[in-house]
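Blinded run. Sample ID left blank on purpose so nobody reads anything into the name before looking at the predicted structure. Input follows.
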Amino acid sequence: MLTGEQVRAARALLSWPEERLADAACISPDAIRQFEDGGMVSRHATSDVLRRVLEAHGVEFIAENGSVCVHYRSEPQGKTMRPEELAADND
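Blinded prediction complete.
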């Protein structure tokens, strides 16, 4: 389950305000604020939705040394390039 700090860090990596994450996750900006402040009652369901949205936009949550690090992938999951799009700087 994600923590509020991890969600806040992921938003910072994407340069997303609370409203953009709320729109992408189809939940209210107040729910994002509450989650990040640790006040959500239905945290597991909200955590799953937020994780899926953030990972779809390039955020990785990496478990390491007993904690979870937040990392940004340059290529979001599922994004593939066609052969004609390949060049020396992006292969």
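Unblinding after everyone has recorded impressions. The mean pLDDT is 82.
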